[in-house]
């Protein structure tokens, strides 16, 4: 009895009968580097935590005690100088009476807004530069 091994090429949804994967010419999407520096997550989380604390009319010291963290460390977190662990973020959020997911979503929205504003400003600068180049 003979053993036969058949090598099968992976199927591609755009293959016609008898064609190989190498015959398919799919458009390639090349990621484009961002034109502006994106804000850091730790900075956005810090700003968001501070906003939630201020909205709750809590002092830094009061929140630090409730979240079992030193006031100095909480201050560093709010200023975006330190990364927050998921456990500490949960503790701070619990002390503030908000869900972790809400804080993260607010921070993400802030980051997206900052990037959009920076890209808009960069686009306006480019348009002004192009316009001033046409007038000379």
UniProtKB/TrEMBL annotation:
Annotated ranges, domain HTH cro/C1-type: 49-103
What Pfam families does its record include?
HTH_31
Q: Which UniProt keywords apply?
A: DNA-binding, Transcription, Transcription regulation
Q: Which GO terms describe its cellular component?
A: cytosol
One Gene Ontology MF term: DNA binding
Per its UniProt record, what CDD domains does this chain match?
HTH_XRE
The protein's matches in SUPFAM superfamilies, at most eight in alphabetical order, are given as: lambda repressor-like DNA-binding domains
Q: Which InterPro entries does the UniProt record give?
A: Cro/C1-type_HTH, Lambda_DNA-bd_dom_sf, TransReg_Diox_bact_type
**In the UniProt record, does the keyword Transcription occur?**
yes
**Which SMART domains does the record match to this protein?**
HTH_XRE
This protein's name: Transcriptional regulator
